Amino acid sequence: MEIADRELAWCEAEMKKASRELGFGDDWHKALDHVKNQHVEPGRQPALIRDLALEAIEFLGKRDLITIPSLAKETWRMQMMTPERQLLNPFFLGGESIIVSYPTSAMTHEQKLMSMRGNNIHFSRATVFHELIPGHNLQGFMSTRFKPYRGLFRTAFWGEGWALYWELLLWDLNFAQSPENRIGMLFWRMHRCARILFSLGFHLEKMTPQQCVDLLVSASGTNWTMPPPRCAGRLIPPTVRCIRAPICSEAFSSARSNASWSVPAG
Ligand SMILES: [Zn+2]
User: Fold this and answer.
1) What is the number of structural domains in the chain?
2) How far is the CA of 207 from the centre of ligand 1 (A)?
3) pLDDT tens by residue, 90-140
4) Mean confidence (pLDDT) of the chain
5) How far is the CA of 143 from the centre of ligand 1 (A)?
6) Sign of the alpha-carbon dihedral angle for 114, 117, 123, 128
7) Model-level pTM?
8) Hey, how many other C-beta atoms are within 10 angstroms of the C-beta on 85?
9) 121 lies in a domain?
10) Would 214 be classed as within a structural domain?
11) Is residue 266 part of a domain?
């Protein structure tokens, strides 16, 4: 929880920097609101996601950061999330396919707006590479083809740690090109900190479900008129993936430094 507090403070300082660049001063919640309103029209989200996936693949390729088999580049798929599932999981999910949240005809007008704001261009830009390449999709592609017996020992430390490792590395490599892009990446990082704090807080019986939701709103700027996301105040095991991710991401980073693997600049 100390790590989450420290990370959250770092994220907030970065959020304020981006907020000042956008002319919102230290009121980063206003800057976040500005970013949430930058979404595409209904019907255009699949094309956006395709473009973002290709952009991330190109970024990795230009810097020679990881080998991506051409079959992996060609075979990821996309599905739309059902409105029922969006109530439980308002954002994207990924792996073999990327599962996209966006308005459907069954939603009320307010729900449609919320779905579009929650899956705006900049939040999505920071989610697509986590879910596809080099994140969960590439992870699954490689681990089903090479030494598949290791699947017996599969854990969420590996699953989420790998994707978070790339989030942190791409931040360091300036994948974000604008203050809005940076806010998109920071939102997820703050969201993860908040999840760590309230998941542990809830299981240690220090927080009620309502306090968990309140923390998510104040600490990461999540603003829900839809039901809160799947993690808030539910009986998620204390070693839930959001807690395991930072631990394993650290392990990937130190493995990289121990191997003296240098990251090309750019
Ligand atoms: Zn993930």
Assistant:
1) 1
2) 25
3) 777 777 888 888 888 888 898 889 889 989 999 999 999 999 999 999 999
4) 84
5) 16
6) positive
7) 0.83
8) 14
9) yes
10) yes
11) no
